[in-house]
Amino acid sequence: MNSMRCQEIPLPSGGVLDLSGPPLVMGIVNCNGDSFYPPSRALGEAAVERALALAGEGAAIIDMGAESSRPGAEYIPAGEEAQRLLPVIEGLRKRSGVPVSVDTRKAEVARLALDSGADIINDISGFQDDPLMAGLCAERGAAVVLMHKQGVPRTMQDAPLYTDAAAEVYSWLAGAARRAEDAGIRRDSIILDPGIGFGKRTADNAAVLFHLAEMCRGDYPVLVGLSRKSFIRELAGKPGRESGGGSGEGDILAGTLAALAFCVMKGASILRVHDVRETVSLVRVLDGLMKGQQADGMVSTA
Asked: Does domain 17-290 have CATH number 3.40.640.10?
């Protein structure tokens, strides 16, 4: 880990994200009806209950999004996005202080979300889609996640092309971080996300993850969001779109956990996932093994 990297990310509420220990788990709540994994979808009070359940399972952050970014998804108006999102943030804030991340690429939605109690703006465009986003986040002291994607969700998987996926993604993210700092965002408020599955083929995703340690040794903490994505099925030899249950459910969960374990070993700081309980267990076990610890009541013979 880079010794220059801050171990605490300040939040607008006055709290912090503590990154000095094992990776934090970010639980996903999709406030829409078309995100690719159906169990993650919930609206209104059901979304608040899902967020509370994920926090109870050990999620250190709840990530809410009202606009699907699955391959083929369409852009929705800011008003519609805010209408789905704001009651959920406000409802959660009445019952929990868990940090809230909002997955949006629109400054208008981000402003309203921050007004409602959000702490982090998770922009899948890395501030490229809305020129007002960076200035807003700087003004409000929001923590930010800057993600790499090639293209737009509607067409991003049609024909993605890289010469060296890892080098190109990491170079782009370094530039995005510099632009964020130039806009007035504090260095210790920036998190980078390589955007697994966003305009990337299976080989591109694998290459980016293989070189993840190089990115994790840099100046910014790294978030990885690969939960249940199609490249995992392909690596497991079971291609096909995730349906949310039935045949292959165990394969996609096991594959996801294997990929997450790989990311933990490479140094990821935050894991964005659908399956919080299982991921928290994975992180705790890996952390114990990496520290050479034994289970309670057992004496090490090392």
From this structure: no
